[in-house]
Amino acid sequence: MNKVLIFILFIFIATTFAYAEGNKVIAGAIEKIAEDGSYIVVSGQKITTTETFIEDAYFEVGDKVKIEVVTPDDKTSPQAVNYEYDFDVESDEDVN
User: Fold this and answer.
1) Global pTM?
2) 23-96: which CATH architecture?
């Protein structure tokens, strides 16, 4: 029983690291959002998305974001898998 549990745990850890290796983060301002939600452009890079991904994130052109992407085996444009807003970017607005 212990050997089976250890084996399952090993497989889980190995697949987790294998999945994460192919991911990278593209950070910057959103420059363009396709009308059909099929892609966005961040820092000059086209990132494949879905309309649901865009709607759930409430993205707008100009938003500062960090998009986690994975590049498919066929080397097409990177596909978005996760995101976060980048609030660390300094703003030009005065805050008083």
Assistant:
1) 0.67
2) Beta Barrel (2.40)
